[in-house]
Amino acid sequence: MSILVVGSVALDTVETPFARVEEVLGGAASYFSTAASLYHQVNLVAVVGSDFPREYLDFWRSRPINLEGLQVKEGRTFRWIAQYHMDMNTRDTLDTQLGVYAGFHPTIPDDYRASELLFLANIQPELQLEVLSQVPKPRLTVLDTMELWIMTARQQLTEVIRRVDILLMSEEEVRQYTNQASIFSGVRQLLGMGLKYVIVKQGSYGALLFGADGTYFTAPTYPLEEVIDPTGAGDAFAGGFLGYLSNREPAVDGCYSVDDIKCAVVHGNIIGSFVCEDFSIARLRGLTMEDIASRYQKLVQYSHFDRHWQ
Amino acid sequence: MSILVVGSVALDTVETPFARVEEVLGGAASYFSTAASLYHQVNLVAVVGSDFPREYLDFWRSRPINLEGLQVKEGRTFRWIAQYHMDMNTRDTLDTQLGVYAGFHPTIPDDYRASELLFLANIQPELQLEVLSQVPKPRLTVLDTMELWIMTARQQLTEVIRRVDILLMSEEEVRQYTNQASIFSGVRQLLGMGLKYVIVKQGSYGALLFGADGTYFTAPTYPLEEVIDPTGAGDAFAGGFLGYLSNREPAVDGCYSVDDIKCAVVHGNIIGSFVCEDFSIARLRGLTMEDIASRYQKLVQYSHFDRHWQ
């Protein structure tokens, strides 16, 4: 089941208290595509400038990533410059240079339209609406967003939320969007907008899954001795999540089972954990299904306990 | 298997952004005893003043709580006054009035000496050492502490840590005591001091269990719609933890199985969740094993996922 992603591709300059990298492959769509292509074919829609390093294109071509929808425009690729604080959880964006991204409008190639899984990575809600108007209703649409759009494009964001199945939000974003102090009340409000699931990201503490059917699931994170760079962890999470589902068969009603959705969240956490172990997508490059399976088995061991007591 | 606890009994005045209570039953030993007595006989050692309300003594007498070691001294009971911030996770201690607690020295009654499980609740490390000198080596000793002792009584605290089996610490306390930014490095240092297990408390995010044998376990928290007052959650956690173990048989080597320890952590989280649903010990009063079993089954459902995939 092929996966369509629309989002940003960037060149990131990232400084942590311990190291610094310059102009490495970044952007939500880059992390997502690289992650999801570990599982299945990915159809990428994004824009890069004429300065975009050929080596990244070559790398993607070596994976099941379709680049037909990747626009290459005269000009500079989107740049993002950020600095992490000592806790490695919070960061300051020092500079954002939009470059060719400023005039970006997603165009979905004909070959992509049959994609059954759609990830609307974190871009302007109005561009996400442009995507939705170009594709027939996919089997499952997952939406990511950020504080900026909650503050500046709330109305369009609301329109997008009403048209997707699953929303990814951090705890802070749930509070900001819903104006509820309690995550549970906030999520209830979001589910009331027609979502099937809300996944609340808790950084290094993991993720909570809430279903409109009452499902609640708290997924363990894979424990990391050392975090090198958490950039892209949320996008890699989405890549693992949809990547896992792309290999599963939905039930006759077209919906995935709750067990599959839970498993997908665990895969998301696993891929997110790998990403944090190096800068950019470096840790995903050589990753195999065996590496993923090994962490999966460890997470079972780390989080399961006797189903019955006494 | 009876449980000995030594710690504080206090009258708490607590203000949250939503409510306020005055001079209600508080103190680590109060929360612990009430919680652990849901499972088994508890032997309490603490001090109260002549003003200590009789109703609390009557309540404890209605439970399997032995009060022989509870000293009643002429004077005022320990008072603690605190105010919670909007996030309900952080608080300011506004006042501490030691009263009769100032001259407290624990005396372990003869009848208590056969207690096989010992909880050294959060009191001065030198008093914890006094306890250890009065009891033959129990089967299992669990230690709680706080930032104040890490800063002001590090040497005695270190001596206590070397003589116990399990240490409870928050993430912040692990960092403070070990001077390690990484929890994993900090815990390794602590386990190197001879502990069998370290349990790292993460507030509303749950608890991590680390074993000297390499065990790692991340326990789910029971999701609460609303937190009324988190005071005592850590002590109630310890009560659920040791309470559960008090009904289990250790293996022939005298040690509990890892599965039992994991289960005990889950019980700790469950009892901790109940405590947060009301002020003081109010929510624990009418609690039954059926209530606990119901949350246990829900936590299985909320945190388990397919052991195998593909």
Description:
Two copies of one chain form a homodimer. With 310 residues, chain A is of the alpha/beta class. The first copy, chain A, has one domain (3-303): UDP-N-acetylmuramoyl-L-alanine:D-glutamate ligase. Chain A has eleven helices and 13 strands. Chain A has helices spanning 28-36, 54-61, 125-134, 147-152, 154-161, 171-178, 183-191, 233-246, 258-275, 282-285, 289-303; strands at 3-6, 10-15, 20-26, 42-49, 65-73, 79-84, 91-97, 117-120, 140-144, 166-170, 197-201, 207-211, 216-219. Chain A has a nine-stranded mixed beta sheet with strand order 5-4-1-8-9-10-11-12-13, with helices on both faces. A four-stranded mixed beta sheet of chain A has the order 3-2-6-7. In chain A, α1 packs parallel to α8 (233-246) and α8 (233-246) crosses α9. The mean pLDDT of chain A is 95. At the A-B interface, β13, α9 and α11 of A face β13, α9 and α11 of B.
